[in-house]
Amino acid sequence: MSPVTHDEWLSRAKAPVVYGAHHIDGRDEPGGGATFAVVSPRDGQVLTEVADGGPAEVNAAVAAARRAFDTGPWPRLAPAERGRILLRLAELLEEQRESLALTVTLEMGKPITDAHDIELRAAINTFRFYGQLADKLTDESPHTAPDALALVTREPAGVVGAVVPWNFPLTLASWKVAPALAAGCTVVLKPSENSPLSASALGRLGTEAGLPPGVLNVVTGDGPGAGRALGLHPDVDVLAFTGSTAVGRHFLHYSADSNLKRVWLELGGKSPNIILPDAPDLEKAAATAAWGIFFNQGEMCTAPSRLLVHSSVAEQVTDAIVRRARELRVGDPLDPATEMGALVREAHLDRVLDHIGTGTEEGARLRTGGTRVLERTGGTYLEPTVFDQVSADSRLAREEIFGPVLSVLTFDDVDEAVRLANATEYGLAAGLWTSNLTTAHQVSRALKAGTVWVNCYEEGDLTVPFGGMKQSGNGRDKSAHALEKYTELKTTWIQL
Question: What is the pTM of this model?
Answer without folding.
Answer: 0.97
